[in-house]
Specification:
This protein has 441 residues and is an alpha+beta fold. It is built from seven helices and 23 strands.
Length: 441
């Protein structure tokens, strides 16, 4: 008798980034993870072997798996953010390999913006440098929930436990000021594979997990905001199938759930407009469901025909977001031309784009001391600072610490359409009042 097949286990996705100073071994570490976890295709292995004599001194150069640009291979550095994907039986992974050069800090912010976990590599010989502090501070500003400090090249310091403890103590001097709670320190050698996938016989004094084991086990289920329902509407779904009567009057609102849980029959509020309605149907790629949650992509069918379009937001009426035209935010400035008060931009927040003007720059963060420098004349390329903005229309948002999706934005130059800054919103001073939202989007 044939037994029915059981459904495959649900495997979640961990997004993580690697960062650190130049030549700390970020690309080699990712290559080692891919190589030792047997996540490489045959053609990738063949390409590594062909390039060994050119870039690896006759040996396989694992960094070539992520350093894809010719300039990166020639210089032996990472310039752009490289994304790689692999999976084990327990979890799927998306890796962002961020550059270590200070002039590419903006690339690091881009790579870390969606990460659940950040790996900061430190060369055991050099110890904690300015870039180590900078990248840890950025991980803190981006509210990345989990941090791994990978002390690399331990083989070059004789696998010294004292050196590992010394570097750990250097980090623990400033970590409390950054508010990082879940921090794991791991001694390893990316080149040799020690403590990356398999435990190393060279570190009998280390009783913690290997890097891959920690990546597989770290709990990320609570990283999303599952309390405050938010659905920024991306587009209005009106399929036209004349022969299918079921779809003749179909009108759904599609987007990615940015927070909370939505269920059939649930009351929701449409912003702007402040009109209440109920959810009649919830559709996903796999079909209709009774409930959905962040960060699923869904199409909701509502009980009433409302004036809702791209840029609108469906929210829980008993857990309202903030709203207003005056915003307070931390930003990373990403453009060679300095930011100065009075400049106008397009502000893109979730699916909504509005005109905005920078009304003031409150301070610039000194990465070396982690102290704010008040009232700077402007922000230059890769600077982290705090600004105030005024928008042409109210924006509905949460503080970045409450919801990373509805608490972030980018600034776009209206002339060139270049992204010039990434921003993290401070908590709103008060929740939006539905009776005050009667205006066109």
């Amino acid at each position: 008798m044939l037994m029915p097949l059981s459904p495959p286990p649900v495997v979640d996705i961990l997004r993580f980034n690697t960062c650190g100073s130049v030549d700390d071994g970020k690309s080699t570490l990712i290559g080692r993870l891919l190589y030792d976890s047997k996540s490489l295709m045959e053609d990738q292995l063949e390409a590594l072997e062909r390039s060994a004599d050119l870039t690896g001194g006759g040996q396989i150069n694992l960094a070539n798996l992520t350093d894809g640009l010719r300039a990166e291979r020639e210089q032996g550095i990472t310039i752009d953010v490289a994304y790689r994907y692999f999976a084990t039986a327990r979890r799927r992974f998306i890796i962002a390999d961020a550059p270590g050069h200070v002039q590419y800090t903006r690339n690091m912010v881009t790579g870390a913006s969606t990460a659940n976990l950040s790996i900061v590599l430190v060369d055991a010989r050099a110890g904690v440098g300015e870039q180590s502090r900078r990248h840890t501070a950025i991980a803190s500003l981006l509210r990345i929930p989990h941090l791994v400090v990978a002390v690399n090249k331990m083989d070059l310091v004789g696998w010294s436990e004292d050196r590992f403890r010394e570097i750990r103590a250097q980090f623990e001097e400033f970590l409390p000021r950054l508010g990082m709670r879940d921090v794991q320190f791991i001694p390893l050698s990316a080149l040799g594979g020690d403590n990356v996938v398999a435990p190393s016989p060279h570190t009998p004094w280390y009783a913690g997990p290997t890097l891959l084991s920690h990546l597989e086990d770290v709990h990320i289920g609570s990283d999303w905001n599952l309390h405050d329902f938010r659905l920024p509407v991306q587009w209005v779904n009106r399929p036209h199938h004349p022969g299918d009567a079921r779809l003749h009057d179909f009108r759904g609102f599609s987007g990615q759930i940015a927070g909370g849980v939505v269920r059939r029959g649930q009351t929701v509020l449409a912003l702007p407009g402040g009109i209440r309605t109920t959810v009649q149907e919830i559709h996903t790629y796999d079909g209709a469901v009774e409930e959905a949650f962040c960060p699923q992509s869904v199409t909701l069918v509502l009980a009433h025909d409302l004036d809702v379009s791209r840029g609108s937001m469906l929210v829980s009426p008993d857990r309202l977001p903030g709203g207003g035209t005056s915003l307070h935010a931390k930003i990373c400035w990403m453009h060679p031309r300095a930011l100065q008060p009075g400049r106008k931009f397009l502000l893109k927040h979730t699916t909504n784009t509005v005109q905005a003007v920078v009304t003031g720059i409150e301070h610039r963060l000194d990465i070396a001391s982690l102290e704010p420098q008040p009232a700077p004349a402007g922000l230059t390329l890769n600077d982290l600072g705090e600004i105030r903005l005024r928008t042409a229309r109210p924006v509905f948002y949460d503080g970045y610490g409450t919801n990373r999706l509805t608490g972030s934005f980018i600034l776009i130059d209206p002339g060139t359409h270049e992204t010039v800054a990434a921003g993290l919103l401070h908590p709103p001073t008060e929740a939006v009042r539905p009776e005050d939202t009667d205006y066109a989007i």
